[in-house]
Amino acid sequence: MGIKITADRMIDLSKEELAALHVDTISCYINMGDKSYSDMEDVFPEDVFRFMDETGQVARTAAKSPAVYSEFFGQFVAAGDTVIHFAVSSGISSIAANAKTAALDYPGKVFVIDSLLLSNGIALLVKYALQLIADGETDARKIVDLATGKIPKIQGSFLLDTLDCLYKGGRCSGLTYFAANLLKIKPVIYMNETGHMVVREKHRGNQARVLEAYIKSTFEKKPNPDLSMLYVVYTTYDKAVQENILNIVAKYHSFAQVRFNDVSCNCCVHSGRNTIGLFYMCQ
Question: pLDDT tens, 248-277?
């Protein structure tokens, strides 16, 4: 009996790390053609990109129903635990709303935090909550309040290399898509205070050229990072790019840890190949 931390699979930590943290996750649906899959359970980023290459279409994402969330929470409540669930931002998905509806089945036993974040932004909140528990905090409501108070402190943004997925998914016009390709525009998307993804700035050039501008701008716009951890996520692994990121980051801050994580299919569906994201908590 105790406090059980759960999260949406878009937390974007590896299965091994989630197991070590004892954090259970629930996936969204990834729909490709007439088939539906559970993200990072029976479909993975390479499958999403292969589908896009072979069909010229993009996959679609869908939240699991309140009934599925209720069943997910129920297993932990039945074991005697109080559940704190970290949901992906309500600004980009109905996931948080469905999880909150499911929590009504377990009054006082399931708490849902609308993180207003995604990916490793959720991971930072989860690790903060786990540290509170490790330090002896046993009041679930207090942990929820303290973790919620940390949301504005988290920097979460992405540098997109291509607008292919946004265009094919109907999220940008043909004119915008054509102009971006012609001018080699790389937009930076960030999570704003209401949990929506908005364009923060635009850089011109290839990814290698604009990467430093993106990292520099991120540290300027969200200063005073907690130097214990920097998360970097990417949709397409490239060792040279990883080394370049480490070199650029070192010019500005000396993080105790810089962790690189793959992202879930959900992020790949919307952002496409070669997307890079930075996540850290500010002091």
Answer: 999 999 999 999 999 999 989 888 889 999
Q: For residues 200 and 157, what is the distance between their CA atoms, to the nearest angstrom?
A: 9
Residue 182 has a pLDDT of 47
Q: For residue 164, what are the contacts with CB-CB under 8 A and spacing of at least 6?
A: 52, 272, 273
What sign results for the dihedral spanned by CA atoms 225, 236, 15, 9?
positive
Note if the pTM is more than 0.90: yes
Q: Could you count the other beta carbons within 10 Å of the beta carbon of residue 17?
A: 13
Q: What is the pLDDT of residues 141-168, one digit of tens each?
A: 999 999 999 999 999 999 988 766 554 5
User: Starting from the edge strand earliest in sequence, which strands make up the sheet with 35-38, in order?
Assistant: 35-38, 29-32, 60-62
Asked if residue 181 has pLDDT above 60, the reply is: no
Across-strand partners of 114?
Answer: 87
Cα 224 from chain centroid (whole Å): 21
What is each CA distance from 20 to 127, 130, 133, 263, in whole angstroms? 12, 12, 15, 18
State the Cα–Cα distance between residues 23 and 19, nearest whole angstrom: 6
pLDDT score recorded for residue 187 = 86
In this structure, the strands spanning 230-234 and 258-262 are: parallel
Q: Which pairs count as long-range contacts for 207-213, CB under 8 Å and 24+ apart, including other chains?
A: 207/159, 207/161, 207/241, 207/274, 207/276, 208/241, 208/244, 210/159, 210/186, 211/159, 211/241, 211/244, 211/245, 211/248, 211/276, 212/248
Q: Are 159 and 207 in contact (CB under 8 A)?
A: yes
